[in-house]
């Protein structure tokens, strides 16, 4: 297979994907089923108009292009009442739209109103988490994950400096989350505080009857580590934060597995695995942002930077470099998206390389981008509009590959 010129190919595919989303995709009001996206929702950063709004807003700021397209998509995102209930979070509802608006100039009044609503959502999530911990109950992953939990709301607040007091409350709640708890329905043994009750809907569900602990960036404790580390790096600290970073880091490192092309991690740990140390998963799966080595290694790199630990920073960078230069692991990636595909790998490596103290990450960027270009060439821009699981995100990452600019939109992935 011929590898195209990275800069020209990236620019061409970025333009094709973004320009293909010049007009909003119209979805019948009351339906979350788009033409080719069964999970389409206007208020979604993942597969909805909010995410496309963000992408066009970023490009308008970068290229001095018209903001009209971003505003057209914004009108699509807000055409129905914005969700501010328990299901709302960084990736969906009022907070998702508020996050997207931050990348559009001239949306100040609307941004202020939505920011207040997002702050209220966050406040209620913090209070709910404290009540749950007071009752010595176990959490569900959506209490603390990036998509709609406290890690995601903390990421949102990083872009809203006027709400730093609330961000500190989020951090304090997440510090408390990291304290061990006893699992009453499993013999009273201590497990990490992020041991969730969620029952998976696939695979051998019997092994999850006593809950599990996830290692992924999207839904696991790795996203919390990334938030705690990013805040500490920016000078935003609360009591116990450094200890919480160490606690999560040490747990993640304890589940590191040796491989022929570097180390890898399982997606989640069940109670039998916790007790015996013997994993059901025996090999690395796709190297994605959401559950794979790239997301985990970036979070460990951020933690090491926050703590001033150059030894662990070098180790995290080496782990990431070995993963993304292993043909066997790269061949497992069949998707172009940010969440679990090539765009997520490229965006993560770009930011990890910018912070790196080792030389191995930067040289991989061209090859990884060329793989993304090849996958992007087969995408229909309007097949899955959206940022995190859609073509707008792919186009945005390809655009980044042609510039030296690094706008902070990737805070919604906690890799910035």
UniProtKB/TrEMBL annotation:
It holds the Pfam family LANC_like. It comes from the Bacteria. This is Lanthionine synthetase C family protein.
């Amino acid at each position: 297979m011929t590898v195209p010129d990275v800069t020209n190919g990236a620019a061409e595919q970025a333009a094709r994907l973004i320009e293909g989303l010049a007009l909003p995709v119209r979805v019948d009001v009351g339906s979350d089923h788009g033409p080719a996206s069964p999970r389409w929702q206007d208020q979604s950063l993942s597969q909805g108009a909010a995410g496309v709004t963000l992408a066009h807003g970023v490009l308008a700021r970068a290229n001095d292009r018209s903001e009209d397209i971003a505003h057209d998509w914004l009108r699509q995102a807000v055409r129905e009442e914005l969700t501010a209930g328990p299901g709302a979070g960084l990736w969906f509802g009022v907070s998702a739209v508020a996050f997207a608006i931050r990348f559009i100039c001239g949306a100040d009044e609307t941004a202020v109103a939505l920011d207040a609503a997002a702050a209220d959502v966050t406040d209620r999530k913090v209070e709910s988490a404290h009540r749950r911990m007071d009752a010595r109950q176990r959490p569900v992953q959506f209490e603390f994950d990036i998509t709609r939990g406290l890690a995601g709301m903390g990421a949102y607040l990083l872009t809203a400096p006027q709400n730093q007091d609330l961000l500190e409350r989020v951090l304090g709640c997440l510090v408390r989350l990291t304290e061990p708890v006893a699992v009453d329905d499993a013999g009273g043994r201590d497990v990490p505080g992020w041991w969730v009750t969620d029952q998976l809907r696939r695979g051998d569900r019997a092994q999850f009857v006593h809950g599990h602990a996830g290692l992924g960036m999207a839904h696991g404790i790795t996203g919390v580590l990334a938030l705690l580390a990013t805040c500490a790096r920016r000078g935003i600290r609360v009591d116990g934060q450094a200890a919480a970073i160490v606690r999560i880091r040490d747990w993640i490192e304890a589940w590191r597995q040796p491989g022929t092309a570097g180390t890898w991690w399982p997606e989640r740990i069940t109670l039998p695995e916790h007790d015996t140390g013997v994993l059901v998963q025996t090999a690395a799966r796709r190297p994605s942002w959401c559950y794979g080595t790239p997301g985990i290694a970036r979070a460990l790199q951020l933690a090491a930077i926050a703590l001033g630990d150059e030894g662990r920073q070098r180790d995290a960078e080496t782990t990431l470099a070995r993963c993304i230069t292993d043909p066997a692991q790269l061949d497992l990636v069949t998707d172009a998206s940010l969440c679990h595909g090539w765009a997520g790998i490229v965006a993560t490596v770009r930011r990890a390389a910018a912070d790196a103290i080792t030389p191995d990450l930067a040289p991989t960027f061209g090859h990884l981008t060329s793989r993304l270009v090849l996958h992007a060439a087969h995408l229909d821009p309007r097949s899955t509009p959206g940022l995190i699981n859609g073509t707008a995100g792919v186009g945005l990452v390809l655009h980044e590959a042609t510039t030296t600019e690094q706008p902070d939109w990737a805070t919604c992935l906690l890799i910035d």
